[in-house]
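Annex B. Sample input.
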Amino acid sequence: MISHVNRVTLAVGMVIATLVGQATAAPAGPSENATINLIRLLVQQGVLKQEQAEGLIAQAEKEAVQARQTAVAATGPAAAPGDVRVQYVPAAVRDQIRDQVKAEVMATAKQENWAQPNTFPDWVSRISFDGDIRLRDESRFFSGNNSNEIVDYAKLNENGPYDVNKDTNTRLPPLLNTREDRENLFRLRARLGMKAIISPEWTAGIRIGTGSDNNPVSTTQTLGGGFGKKDIWLDQGYLTWKATQDLTLTGGRIANPFYSTDMMYSSDLNFDGVAAIFNHSLNNEWGLFGTLGAFPVEYTSDTASSNGFDKEDSDTKWLFGGQIGANWKINRSNSLKGALAYYRFDDIEGQRSSPCSPWAGAPGCDTDGSRVAFMQKGNSVFLLRNINANPATPGLTPQPQYVGLASKFDVLDLNLVWDSELPQDFKLRSQANFIHNLAYDKGEMLKRSEGEIVNNINSKGQFESGGNALMVQFTLGSALEMKKAGDWNLLAGYKYIQPDALPDGFNDSSFHLGGTNAKGYFIGGNYGIDKNIYASARWLSASEVYGAPFEVDVMQLELNTRF
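Annex B, continued. Sample output.
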């Protein structure tokens, strides 16, 4: 926007251009010449300097004399009725006024970014937008040999407690669908992000996304539902401070700050908390990176139990993570990337309660809050409540229960990636991921649960589990990332995830329909249709490692675009 002074300058300039006729030497007092009075007024207002004003008056006087001499030598035709004669404006005056007005206006325009080609005001240039849309057709094919009695413990905790005493409760617990195929589920993922550069060191960002619910591992929305409107969620919201050239601090709801695969963390998972991210190049061949972070996974409700006088102790479940890694450019055709991470999940395991009597009116039991906020399936779980029997009817005492995780989780995560350029411009990525739960202890789990573990039981009634997971994957094609038309690649891999290698609530939700206690293979391919538009196809086949039979194949056909 043109400033007040510039507007005055422009207006006065226009008046001068139309009124200047002849100029005489300015007397000390007010002049009869309106133009000279206007020039003096500009000096008083600080628009013109005194020396500039004197120069204008002298030049105007000189050219006015010349104009009068010319008019005497050649008198023009007489004016007809209605004609308007415009006083002569000396060229020097016009040019000087024009140049000064133009210079001041353009200076303001440049400063405020409103007159330069392809530019916007400064605050607009510091904001950028990005997003992506994915259309997916998904089909799920179940084996006819699957057990149809696999309990959905996530829904049991969400809708519970559930009475496990069959003598007092005849209804079934929530069960997973394990036998009925689901074909052509039309699904959508849409995300839109905004990033604002507050200063050279500070950045703020917000991203919204779709999602059928608030689960942390997917922003995919299943379409249908009578054409009803779909939900929008806050997917990210963060502040970032670039402390040094190599160190960045970020906090809020942030993207995964660790280098990992979807066997550990879903690609859609975001973290709530703070992280310090380090990235340093040693030379043209070597680089180091690392991350430290603290993330509150869940807070104990201030009102639990809601209908009791005594509230539960504050017991925040935390994730503390640290990672160190290196990049090695071996030669022009080969590079290696490796990272080792340690994740400590504090207080995520369940706790067996002290004796309690919900049947006698107790609002709850003292460890109800130790159940996790979100889970998929696979982790070993046990009944949390130690319920006293009713002395009057011991066998008919209701047993309303929640479940909690039987294992602690201190997870070691090792990732290796080798990128190679092959003849014919082919590119090959070989990737391996090994996970080990340092806190896995079968004996400790049985002790913690007091023998009340309810899943991962074999046909002999014995509890089986493990604390290891392994993934290998190979990607071959003209490009590893789909950026332009004609880019393509093929991929294949294998996963083996024991039940308690990692928390089942945070990893990929497609392989074995999410969680742990899964093994199997996956294949797929990607093809670039246009710039930033590509098609994908995946087939994932997985079954259980331990426990009741559960085998499922998942086919996904996708159209992806980013902008």
